[in-house]
């Protein structure tokens, strides 16, 4: 495959959107303790491999749907810039890479790697049968901080579960917003989403409720771990302000700023919370 095809693949899966989940995984790793540089590298590689595998599988599974949707018809597979056989290779490599990296961390990570892949890959089919598809995507991203915690401690505890739940609702909330762009196509094509099922206005209200639950979960974390203090609470407050702004700029009659809400604000949210926690743990509590 030519270099141009590989570059088209990375543009297709939007590799830069890895920023959404990575900071939350690092947050969990910091709170778990015992972090080393080699382990950080392994966790980051595992997450990048898992996300790349999931996105590649999503593009393969949705190729025919994408070809019918004007917004997605220019993607690499529908447009013919990458052949299906080549895309299968590009899917298989990170999938194998994820399992291999998990095997180098600890046995429980290798044992759970098929479960993680089932969640990450299975999301692609949910839009075919349930409007709760946004929450399945949330579960896929929630596995990042939970997996990072297990990688360090080998156990599953309340703190990573609470962080995972917060990530789940945060993700579901912004995915509902993004799905508003396709609500008309989804209805015609019998694709399930909340905007297609109940309309944009009610869907945005559910999205807002999800983000409230996410902020409440992040705030609750600060009372569950004594390593978290005032800076973490300030971080949660700023996250809440950003999410409020996100819902102010997206309205049922004006979806022109969905891109800003989805891409820019949510990237800032994850980095902001991670930064606040890191400062609390390594500066204030040091």
Structural features, described:
- The protein is mainly alpha-helical and 286 residues long.
- The chain has a single domain (3-7, 17-284), classed as UbiA prenyltransferase (Tetracycline Repressor, domain 2, Orthogonal Bundle).
- Helix content is 79%, strand content 0%.
- It has helices spanning 3-12, 22-32, 37-61, 63-68, 76-79, 84-105, 107-126, 133-153, 158-179, 183-189, 194-198, 200-224, 230-249, 258-284.
- Helix 2 (22-32) runs antiparallel to helix 3 (37-61) and helix 2 (22-32) runs parallel beside helix 8 (133-153).
- The radius of gyration is 19 Å and the shape is globular.
- The model has no long low-confidence stretch (mean pLDDT 92).
Low-pLDDT parts are none
Number of strands: 0
- The CATH architecture can be given as Orthogonal Bundle
Helices and strands, in order, run as: HHHHHHHHHHHHHH
Based on helices, strands and strand pairing, what is the structural class? mainly alpha
Report on the biggest sheet: none
CATH homologous group name: UbiA prenyltransferase
Overall mean confidence score, pLDDT: 92
The CATH topology comes to: Tetracycline Repressor, domain 2
Q: Hey, roughly how much beta strand do the residues contain?
A: under 5%
